[in-house]
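batch job 7 of whatever, protein = FAD-dependent oxidoreductase
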Amino acid sequence: MQKKTTDILIIGAGLTGLTLAYYLKQLNISVTLVEARHRIGGRIYTKQNNNQAPVELGATWFVNEHSALIKLLKTLHLDIFEQYYGTTAIYEPSKANPPQLINLPHSNQANYRIKNGTQSIINALCNELEAHQIITDCAIASIERRDGYILAKSESYEFECKHIVSTLPPYLFDKTIPIEPQLPQELKELLQNTHTWMHDSIKVGFTFAVPFWKGERTSGTIYSNVSVLQEFYDHSNADENLYALVGFMNKDVYSHTKEERQELALKQLEQYYGNEVRNFLSYEELVWQDERYTTASRDGFIMPQQNNGHPLFQNSYLDEALFIAGTETSTYASGKMEGAVRSAQQVFRQIKSLL
């Protein structure tokens, strides 16, 4: 068991955790991030294949109003580009009606993506930190408040800290990390009844050599009420020389194999585009329900956005030693990348005031 001392321990090296560590650089304190996965990024995951368009299997889009995220991207010298939707969409309203090409209503609000993939912001933040500050494959198993410090234990480490910040989804935090002394009952009930973004999503994508969906009388924007692919979008890269279609699959096919999900998706796309879809370069998917460090099994249904941004998440606990952060805790744009960045800003201000 290795013993480490750090001023701030951040649990989770996703966007909130990495952004908070980046902000804390301006203070003369030691910061350590621990990540249970082998990879960093949390619910941001871009699948990169050589000579193929990046496929976003996690957080992807943002809008002009997401000012904190956009400012951070500018600071990190990361470029953005507008999501292409086109003027039409393929719409499948019901099994009784064949897919039809409809006109998309004009919108003054554009959606944007990060050039070279959303993972770029994760990599850029990581590069701003020292290598020794991030420990992967390190799942915190317990937290205990002691006289003068707070102790966090994993299988291989004991961390003695002044402050701990959890950036885990609140439900997962409550289910996987016992805390002594126990948190207030009101907070525990809140943690157990807070919706986790992406927890049951299935994101999939196909890369192609040719963007056949950009031809006449067709579209790369797909909406279906009845087929396995519910929302699908053009996902070509910023330079428009690498091509992909990416979107969300019906969560009801969770129990299928990857091969079965791929075939169901291809059969649906064949209805719209013909046999050309069989010439795909790669098929990628991420079933977020299988991500044990994003979600935990639950009893009952929690409404989307339920308790996101709740006032109790804005407080500190265990005599100002424990903070609960993450996109679900943000009072603005919870569940979005903007919410993750704003949560990091909120906790940074709290810690700075204490120091």
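notes: The domain at 45-116+200-291 is CATH 3.90.660.10 (Polyamine Oxidase; Chain A, domain 2).
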